[in-house]
Amino acid sequence: MTPIRAWAAHAAGRALEPYEFDAGPLGPEEVEIAVESCGICHSDLSMLDNEWGLSLYPLVPGHEAVGRVAALGDQAKGLTVGLRVGVGWNAASCRHCRFCMSGNQHLCQGVQPTIIGRHGGFAERLRAHWMWVIPLPDALDPSAIGPLLCGGVTVFYPILNFVKPTDHVGVVGIGGLGHLALKFLNAWGCEVTALTSSESKHEEARALGAHRVVSSRNPEAMKAIAGSLDLILDTVNVPLDWQALMSTLAPTGRLHVLGAVLEPIPVNAMGLILGQQTISGSPTGSRGAIDIMLDFAARHGITPQVEHLPMSRVNEALEHLRAGKARYRIVLDADLG
Predict the structure, then answer these.
(1) Angle at Cα 17 formed by Cα 12 and Cα 22, nearest 5°?
(2) CA 87 to chain CA centroid, nearest Å
(3) Mean pLDDT rounded to a whole number for the chain
(4) Residue 195 burial by CB count (10 A; 0-12/13-18/19+): exposed, middle or buried?
(5) CA 147 to CA 171: how far, in whole Å?
(6) Which listed CATH number (2.30.42.10, 3.90.180.10, 3.30.565.10, 3.40.190.10) goes with 4-150+285-333?
(7) pLDDT, tens digit, for every residue of 4-15?
(8) Which residues, other chains included, contact 159 with Cβ-Cβ below 8 Å and sequence gap of 6+?
(9) Is the sign of the CA dihedral 31, 37, 42, 47 positive or negative?
(10) 247, exposed or middle or buried, with CB in 10 Å at 0-12, 13-18, 19+?
(11) How far apart are the C-alpha atoms of 295 and 284, rounded to whole Å?
């Protein structure tokens, strides 16, 4: 078997280095993809730093991969060699539990994330089960589509499940997830409010689809929208003024958490009860949700706003993301060949 070249970290907090590994024989239901590009997600940073206690080293990050099918196991279905495809956060699931059988494969207790116990897309080849290898619409730019496969479906999944086109929706954080949420919600038909602590992003948020922009650090501005939002999508992974945020919800409103906040969220039970409100969260989305999201993005011309760097500059790209300077996603273009 020809070794696969990749970029890997050998310990938490370490820079990525060139790395080779033997993937072994291709499984009967596996697909091998020749990687053309791979987005960088904040979850890659969390895994590199072992923030969640799930990382195994050497760690090859990358779970927003786009490329072409290079090889198929003899039981792989629905794909052909040469087809352009993508792989997101998940690479396999059991396919027989009640969650898989009900179309919620991302909630499978045996789901296998692409970069947990597996080698990800910062490599010349990537493997995944055929069900999680997604054919990509021709209408979308393949060089920018990678971030839709994780960040895109992460924000689209709650829209698909909880949002009506007549809803008033707030988005907290105008970054890698938030900028996609603004684009999707505007095309969905909602009145969209961007909540940001960065004054420099106000005009950008409007250009991305927000109908109004509110400074989340301004108490008077927050009071002015009290009781007005049907849903808030929280896309940031830092603690917030939760009481101020909840006060902007209308009766029956929902705060939906997408950012991996590691600290507990304090809840005012009486506020929830009297307003019949909800706090919820979700991880990425099902395979069906990814397909619907890509169809919706293709129909409305929605692609992430990306910066490109060659994969050989991966450490520079990671530091750019850590510093909060990405506008708004980074895509690594494969140059291992």
Answers:
(1) 100
(2) 11
(3) 97
(4) buried
(5) 18
(6) 3.90.180.10
(7) 999 999 999 999
(8) 181, 184, 185, 188, 233
(9) positive
(10) middle
(11) 17
